[in-house]
Amino acid sequence: MTENKEYQNAVLDDQELQAGLKGVNLKFGDFVTRVAGEAWGQPFISQKAKALITIAVDIVNQNQKGTVNPLRSHIDMALKQGATRAEIEELLFFLSAYTGFNKVGAASGLVKEFFEETSVPQSKTPVRQVDYASRDEKGKVAFYVLLWKRKGITLELFDNYWKDVHGPVCARLPGQHQYWQFHLAHNQGGIWPQSNSVNYITAEEDQFDGIAELTFETEQDRQTWFKAAAILMDDEHNLFSKAIGYNSSPGNSKTYVDGIPTGDPNGEVGVLKFHVLVRKADRATVEEFQSYMKNSFAPAVVQNESVLKFRLHIFDEVDNSRPEAAGVVHHEPPQKQYQAAFEIAFSNPLEMEKFFASKEYATAIKDQAEYVKDISPFPERTSHTFVYDSKITLAGQRSSRVAELILNIGATNQLRDDVVSMMSGNQNSKKSLGHYLQGVQHFGITVDNMAKAIEFYTEVLGGKIAISGDGFIGPVVHNTLFQKEDIEAIQRGIDPRELGVADLRDGTKEALDVRFISFGNTVIEVIHFRDAKLNVNAPNVYQKVPSCVGFANVPHISFHVKDDVDLNMFAKILEEECQSRGMTGVICNRIIHVNSEEERRKVALKYYANKFWNEPEYFIEGYSDAEFGDFHGWSLFYCKGPNGEQLEFNQVTRKANQMFRRAQKEYNEAHGTSFPWASDTITKPTSAWLGSHTIKEPTIATQEKAMTSERFPGQLTQIVKEMFKAGESMNVDNFVKFYTDDALYQFSNFPIVYGPKGIKDASTAFIQTVEALYHKIKHIWEVGADTVICEMEVTYIRFDGKVFTLPCCDTIRFKGDKVSELRIYMDISPVFMS
């Protein structure tokens, strides 16, 4: 085999080459050495690249004749400079497209003969030495979006805006496990070997320019992302003319094999990769098509070693209910929809051709025409990763281009936490969460004698009972209160009772009794753990600790979280903020059973807070379908403070809110006080919670410009949500603060009213007919700069206990940050029927 020398100058440093040239003719050899040596000594093209160029020139000029010919010498020269047999073979394959098949064919015999004579080994396929397919397993479901660039912008501008502006915004939305952008070339045909009855031509209107693929660990995570994705809608019209999204059900987006070492690329991957869209044959059922793709096609394809990567998506039917956004088409007629797609990669063109000539491929397409109508392969130009393994990548944080620059220059300082935090807009990563709270809601105390406690706090001190409940049991309540201690007991190998844990799981051991007593400006919660077989007058199951102020952990403090904040997300960011400060003991209890801290960290977000009502996204069988009575609308989570103090965070809505308000009103009337309910002191929408993002309260200066300044996408949506929350509170004064002085308000077929006074009068008259109302938003869209459309179901509970859930669609127009027009389209008549 030719020795690899990698000369600085492949002519002047190769004495063997010079001797061969002089052996032909001394004067000729000297001349060639001097002239070629100067050409090979130029600095910008590597010696290996120049050697490969000489081979290309030889093939163009057909310099392969004779026993001593330039082609043999130049192959030897290329091998000495580090070229491999595989690279030379690929060069021949490449040249066949540009010099002609006959010229390359004539030289191929000599090249093969040279390799055999010099014992250069047959090129090995560098595929699947390691299979990385398992790294995609956590992404159980996918959202796969085909994207057409907007007319009037260049492909370069499309690429740059998508990866450097739009991508980092999308990366910050909650719920994602992976987020890739695939930038594609159009399907020009000629790539895929054609078989009978299958169409390989892609119509011009179907030639899209990119694919966004997002994966999620659970369906709930995908829905979380969808709810937060309204923020992207206003940006779509800058970039896309059409965006068609496909969902896959659990198990229907799967990576079968993956020999590409980098799972989070940012640019060219260095392999030959295609994204192939597939339509089923008209005569095949959906079930038959899916069975063919998953059970016949995919298993046969991945048996071939030339396939470097194969990832298959089986799509659900397209949801065409998504409205168009400022001219961006979201609708795809059924005949245009795809039913599957796959990503396939090869290390080089030779490996691709080997695959298409293989028995495995023949097996894969044997019955293809029965199930497949169209195959459209789109070559990948580049791919970019913005979220990977549930973490935002450097490209997601700083844009694809900036990430590339940081990587290429080796700027490790740019990866420091303080720099990352500063570039994310948090110059001080240690931030207060106070803007999510509206004060302390109650102080709790565990008592030994419930009867004496009630007598003291109500009869002696004059408090008024808001809500009360006896005999609370069940795993959700138990986990809410005691999960941290249960895990600690497992770790220490002791009985949880040694740590003061009552067993509330099934009602065979202990039960919990609760009283909330209002003192106008705050509330006292009295809690009591007793033997479940005894009544509320039984003593607490654990003895009292000494009452000296030096002893801790007897009481607990409960903070009141604002109504418009997602309590699950608040628990998550509370943990994260405390962890960043080294307060590792501040971890919130989850409401489902776990055996370790690791399991607790992996629990889905919806299980952070205990919600005393029935909603599908929080549903827990045997719990959420219970009758919560006066506690309906209560929600909370427990955690420890940094010194082990017991803390609680809660929200008070729906029926619970009414009960607390009643008790507060009774206290005010009895004692001549005028304490307001916490949320009633809010004079306008505040926290604007959107997934994991918040919109800060505007300063006075920005408020003055509110009518003309640009608004952050999603802000109107959040104001609408806060307005609905205010309506649910049955507090008309707070509700009408969302409207302009000349606002138009039309509710169902009631007369139109104008301005806050008209809205207040109409709303007051209506809420006197119902005890409670709740909104369940199904879809919400921001249209243009000043309009929100909201599709939802509204539940009304009459005073006689009858419940009505009615479909509703609202159109809401804004002036600045206030509503100038609300039209509520629904049939309210069932509520008034006997």
Describe the fold and architecture.
The protein is elongated. It is α+β, with helices and mostly antiparallel strands. Helix content is 34%, strand content 24%. The longest helix is centred in the middle third of the chain and has 18 residues, at 475-492. Mean pLDDT is 85; it is low at 682-712. Helix 3 packs antiparallel against helix 4 (70-80) and helix 5 (85-99) packs antiparallel against helix 6 (101-117). It has 25 helices and 27 strands. The strands form four sheets. Strands 1, 2, 3, 4, 5, 6, 7, 8, 9, 10 and 11 form an eleven-stranded antiparallel sheet that branches. An eight-stranded mixed sheet has the order 13-14-15-12-16-19-18-17. Strands 23-22-27-26-25-24 form a six-stranded mixed sheet.
What gross morphology would you assign?
elongated
Uncertain ranges: 682-712
List the total number of helices. 25
Radius of gyration in whole Å, from Cα?
Answer: 35 Å
Let me know the average pLDDT: 85
Helix and strand composition category:
alpha+beta
User: How many strand segments?
Assistant: 27
Helical fraction equals 25-40%
Strand content: 15-25%
End-to-end gap: 97 Å
Report the biggest beta sheet as strand number plus sense, adding barrel if it closes: 11 strands, antiparallel
